[in-house]
Design brief:
It is a single chain. The protein has helices at residues 2-33, 48-57, 94-99, 120-125; strands spanning 35-36, 42-45, 61-62, 71-74, 88-91, 103-110, 113-119, 129-130, 138-139. It has 143 residues and is an alpha/beta fold. It has 4 helices and 9 strands, in the order H-E-E-H-E-E-E-H-E-E-H-E-E. It has a 7-stranded mixed beta sheet with strand order 3-2-4-5-6-7-9. The protein has a two-stranded antiparallel ribbon with strand order 1-8. Strand 5 (88-91), helix 3 (94-99) and strand 6 (103-110) form a beta-alpha-beta unit.
């Protein structure tokens, strides 16, 4: 009986984690498709699971090299090389938004819910256009 209960709990945790990753990827795809940059959008992420899910959905062009990308989805500050610091960067951790002034927005979880922040001054400086769907997420500055 204990084994069955343990297996059910384990399966629930794995299923919930998978749904969280899928939700994160869907939100990221929506954000990236709702912005326009001056070049063809090619996405790279240091999170290989996210990159794989994006590739499987076939909604965005992806690359395995940050040098070939136009938009970087960054989860870990140590993953960004000097060659890629000038790219459009979207972070997956609110603290990275402060750490990387060239990042234009963030997707992060707070109290179990996804939060999206896009910094107005940064998108303007990087000539990024956002659709009306993303206007509610525009902020004047990092909190």
């Amino acid at each position: 009986m204990k084994l069955l209960a343990t297996l059910i709990i384990f399966a629930t945790v794995i299923f919930a984690h998978d749904n969280s990753d899928n939700l994160k990827v869907k939100i990221l795809e929506k954000i990236i498709t709702e912005i326009s940059v001056d070049k063809k959008v090619v996405v790279w992420s240091d999170n290989k699971e996210i990159l794989t899910h994006i590739q499987e959905h076939h909604k965005l062009n992806t690359t395995y090299s940050c040098e070939e990308s136009t938009i970087i989805i960054l989860q870990d500050a140590d993953s960004l090389t000097k060659k890629c610091e000038k790219k459009h960067i979207f972070v997956l951790n609110y603290e990275l938004l402060s750490e990387f002034p060239q990042s234009f927005g963030a997707l992060f979880w707070k109290k179990g819910r996804p939060n999206i922040v896009i910094i107005k001054s940064r998108i303007k400086a990087q000539s990024i256009q956002v659709s009306n769907d993303l206007k509610p997420y525009l902020e004047e500055k990092v909190w």
